[in-house]
Specification:
The structure is a single chain. With 296 residues, the protein is α/β, with parallel strands linked by helices. The protein has two domains: 17-152, Response regulator (Rossmann fold, 3-Layer(aba) Sandwich), CATH 3.40.50; 156-260, Orthogonal Bundle (Arc Repressor Mutant, subunit A), CATH 1.10.10. It has eleven helices and 13 strands. It has helices at residues 39-51, 65-70, 87-97, 112-121, 133-154, 184-195, 203-211, 221-236, 258-265, 273-284, 291-295, and strands at residues 17-19, 31-35, 55-59, 75-78, 102-108, 125-129, 159-161, 164-167, 172-175, 178-179, 200-202, 240-246, 250-257. Strands 1-3-2-4-5-6 form a six-stranded mixed beta sheet, sandwiched between helices. The protein is elongated, with a radius of gyration of 27 Å. The relative contact order is 0.08.
Length: 296
């Protein structure tokens, strides 16, 4: 059965937060909140959540991040069309303040630009309605698994590489005690690369580890986020080169001081069109004859 319909309406009362779950009858594995008012979608999804033994709450509007934190959620499923013009601000705030929460957008009729914006603000996934309930459940579980792997990584403590100190428990990295202010997605990418320092990771593998599912052919998200990482790293730690490109393959995290690389390589000739022109003229110009030779 496909969930998602044009029938929309409030579920339950008129308050901003509405609870709907059997809380004690089953062993609970996950805690999920759903911000949506599509009654057809909610009826089908609720049956699946109950059948899986999940705790869940149906919310009829935006909830402050601190209240979401108090619910101790594993995942939040949200339809931004319910939030109106505040949707993007809400999404960015929740993703930034609750990095351990899996955030999944599920809505109807979104453009590619909207999906890209939502993912770059920190959403872990984007599902288009109408959608199959089993797919929704599978994506929730995949996101939670990925976040749990990240929590296991937090127990290992900070990782120091070059001038960079990576702190998984804060989802941030620091140079000289100053935060590089990574978004959650940027940090997750850095953390994956740093966990495999010295090893070349293919783009597909990076995407699967960071985004949680297989990369679509032609997707350049990995390259875009690597470029963002490099830009922030170069601003705060200009004397180090952290991420190296392996063309046609992927990327390798291997911090190297730039001065050492320059000394190894020796002095380099200036490059560019002007330098090439000068070299060409030096090779082609005939030797100058002395004035005595001309008179003889």
């Amino acid at each position: 059965m496909v969930c998602g319909s044009d029938e929309r309406g409030r579920v339950g009362g008129t308050g901003p937060r509405l609870a709907a779950t059997p809380m004690s009858a089953q062993v609970v594995t996950l805690r999920v909140a759903v911000i949506d008012d599509d009654s057809g979608f909610l009826r089908v999804l609720a049956k699946r959540l109950e059948g899986a033994g999940y705790q869940y709450r149906i919310l009829s509007g935006p909830v402050p991040a601190d209240e979401l934190a108090a619910m101790k959620l594993n995942a939040l499923l949200v339809d931004p069309s319910l939030l109106g013009p505040l949707a993007w601000e809400f999404l960015e705030r929740v993703c930034g303040m609750l990095p351990g929460l899996g955030v999944i957008v599920c809505t109807q009729g979104a453009t590619v630009a909207q999906r890209v914006r939502g993912l770059r603000l920190g959403a872990d996934d984007w599902i288009s309605k109408p959608c199959h309930p089993e797919e929704v459940m599978a994506r929730i579980e995949a996101i939670v698994r990925r976040h749990r792997r990240g929590q296991t990584r937090e127990d290992l403590g900070p990782l120091v590489a070059g001038e960079l100190e990576i702190m998984p428990d804060r989802f941030q990295a620091y140079v000289g005690g100053e935060s590089l202010e990574f978004t959650r997605r940027e940090f997750e990418l850095l953390d994956v690369l740093a966990q495999h320092a010295g090893k070349v990771l293919e783009r597909d593998e990076i995407y699967r580890r960071v985004w949680g599912y297989s990369m679509i052919h032609g997707d350049r998200s990995v390259d875009v986020f690597v470029r963002k990482l490099r830009s922030k790293l170069q601003r705060r730690s200009p004397g180090w080169d952290y991420i190296h490109t392996h063309f046609g393959i992927g990327y390798r995290f291997d911090p190297q001081p730039l001065e050492r690389a320059r000394r190894r390589g020796g002095a380099r000739r200036p490059r560019g069109r002007g330098a090439q022109t000068r070299n060409f003229l030096e090779k082609r110009s005939p030797p100058r004859r002395s004035s005595q030779t001309l008179r003889s």
